[in-house]
Amino acid sequence: MSSTAGTGRFTERVAVVTGGASGAGSSICREFAAQGATVVVADLNISAATALAKELGTNHVHAIAVDITDSSSVSALAAQVTQQCGRSADILINNAGVRIVKSLLDHTDDDWEKMININLTGHFYCTRAFAPAMIERGWGRIINIASIASFVGRPDRVAYCAAKAGTLGLTRAAAIDLRHSGITVNAIAPGSIATPLNAQAKNDNNVDWGGETLVGRWGQGNDIAKAAAYLASDDASYVNGTTLTVDGGWVSAKARDGEIGSS
Ligand SMILES: NC(=O)c1ccc[n+]([C@@H]2O[C@H](COP(=O)([O-])OP(=O)(O)OC[C@H]3O[C@@H](n4cnc5c(N)ncnc54)[C@H](O)[C@@H]3O)[C@@H](O)[C@H]2O)c1
């Protein structure tokens, strides 16, 4: 292990976070680093990843460039993790994702492919690249970041919803194939999280996505990071093939105006 990782429940663990340079991914990197993991910020945006690694302490936080839609880039990432951290990943968080918002008829072939490749195929490539070393070690945690769009249709997001629904299928089937190897595969379905992905809605006074939840606020990256830390821990060893929804109750509520009061 490279390092001077701190103390905490992940001290002996290497955690790879795809899309770790921004938003929820950066919160996940911060949380795992704070809990002692050696963290790999794996991102297309290497300058942002490097800046985060520098901020968190390059002794135990590494920035590595990857395009998760390119299987050879993902294979190179797996090799670099072992080289730089002295150990392959114990924990993989498939977090990188993008969202195109436009009507079904306006989705181009490229839009569709981009949504499926980044939000679904990339998670498969990473899972396939990192699982063998976890199998060999007899312990592993794979966490796929899904969405409330995995469960419900959302307007102008046909490819995103299709990819995110696919993430849950990938999660369940991967959990079966990796059974008996000490690996669990789970998903987190975030609701409205205040990240750069949602900057427009967050700054729009006509939109109150936080107020639509039962908790009455926007989610923060840290809400996702805490859920990821739980699923990656030994406390969650009996949790497998399932989805933890972290949305302030939005999917469960589905109340109409007037059905529930404000207090
Ligand atoms: N923000 C929300 O409200 C919300 C809600 C539900 C689900 N999610 C999901 O959470 C995850 C993180 O979202 P966020 O809001 O933090 O997004 P973000 O835009 O802040 O960060 C996404 C990161 O992914 C990286 N990335 C994009 N394409 C990549 C590629 N091909 N290879 C490697 N890295 C790549 C980007 O460089 C960026 O650093 C995504 O999977 C998103 O779909 C977010």
- What form results from the Cα inertia axes? globular
CATH architecture designation: 3-Layer(aba) Sandwich
Q: Write out the distinct hetero groups bound to the structure.
A: nicotinamide-adenine-dinucleotide
Low-pLDDT stretches are: none
Q: In whole angstroms, how far apart are the ends?
A: 51 Å
Q: How would you name the CATH homologous superfamily? A: NAD(P)-binding Rossmann-like Domain
Write up what this structure looks like.
The chain has eight helices and seven strands, in the order βαβαβαβαβαβααβα. It is an alpha/beta fold. The protein has a single domain (14-251), classed as Rossmann fold. The protein has a seven-stranded parallel sheet with strand order 3-2-1-4-5-6-7, sandwiched between helices. Helix 4 links the parallel strand 4 (91-94) and strand 5 (140-145). The longest helix is centred in the middle third of the chain and has 29 residues, at 109-137. It is globular and about 55 Å long. Bound molecules: nicotinamide-adenine-dinucleotide. Nicotinamide-adenine-dinucleotide (NAD) binds at residues 18-19, 21-25, 43-45, 66-69, 95-99, 118, 122, 145, 147, 190, 192-193, 195-198. Nicotinamide-adenine-dinucleotide binds next to helix 1 and helix 4.
